[in-house]
């Protein structure tokens, strides 16, 4: 089955050898998003709350480019350099998602690209 590349200028362009997202059948696999402003390709100013919001904005832009909505997210992976910021992720999710919430993992990491505090990737099911 061939893949379909999903791309949008509303989210940061890839900073490496990857696609923003790939669709295979009814599944869409979104690459990790860090809090880059798509216009400047720099980390958004502000604290962890601002970075988390930008990551969700970026993910949502790719989700929309796939012809979907956040309600189609079935799996969300969250990578944090400080797990103390996890309550902020919960707050942001409560603002953007409605039950049933996606399955989710939260992983503490030593570092992320461009010294970001947070990165997230997702899987959508459009079936």
Structure characterization notes:
- This protein has 127 residues and is an alpha+beta fold.
- It has a single domain, classed as 60s Ribosomal Protein L30, Chain: A.
- The chain has 2 helices and 6 strands, in the order βββαβαββ.
- The chain has helices at 48-65, 86-96; strands at residues 4-6, 21-24, 27-33, 73-80, 103-108, 118-125.
- A 6-stranded mixed beta sheet has the order 1-2-3-6-4-5, covered by helices on one side.
- Helix 2 links the parallel strand 4 and strand 5 (103-108).
- Helix 1 (48-65) crosses helix 2.
- The longest helix has 18 residues, at 48-65.
- The chain is globular.
- 28% of the residues are buried.
- The model has no long low-confidence stretch (mean pLDDT 97).
* Strands in their spatial order, largest beta sheet: 1-2-3-6-4-5
Biggest beta-sheet profile: 6 strands, mixed
The pLDDT mean sits at 97
What integer value in Å does the Rg equal?
14 Å
Q: Please, what is the CATH homologous superfamily?
A: RutC-like
Question: What is the tally of helical segments?
Answer: 2
Q: Specify the CATH architecture.
A: 2-Layer Sandwich
* The CATH topology: 60s Ribosomal Protein L30, Chain: A
β-sheet strand percentage: 25-35%
* Cα separation of the termini: 16 Å
CATH C-level class: Alpha Beta
Structural class per helix/strand content?
Answer: alpha+beta
Question: Uncertain segments of ≥5 residues (pLDDT<50)?
Answer: none
Order of helices and strands: EEEHEHEE
Tally of individual domains: 1
Q: What is the helix fraction of residues, given as a range?
A: 10-25%
Number of strands: 6
Shape: globular
């Amino acid at each position: 089955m061939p893949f379909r590349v999903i791309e949008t200028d509303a989210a940061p362009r890839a900073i490496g050898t990857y696609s923003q997202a790939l669709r295979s059948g009814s599944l869409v696999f979104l690459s990790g998003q860090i809090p880059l402003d798509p216009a400047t390709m720099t980390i958004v100013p502000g604290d962890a709350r601002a970075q988390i919001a930008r990551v969700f904005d970026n993910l949502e832009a790719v989700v929309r480019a796939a012809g979907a909505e956040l309600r189609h997210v079935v799996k969300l992976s969250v990578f944090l350099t400080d797990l103390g910021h996890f309550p902020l992720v919960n707050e942001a999710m409560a603002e953007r998602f409605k039950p049933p919430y996606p399955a989710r993992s939260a992983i503490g990491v030593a570092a992320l690209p461009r010294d970001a505090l947070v990165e997230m990737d997702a899987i959508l099911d459009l079936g």
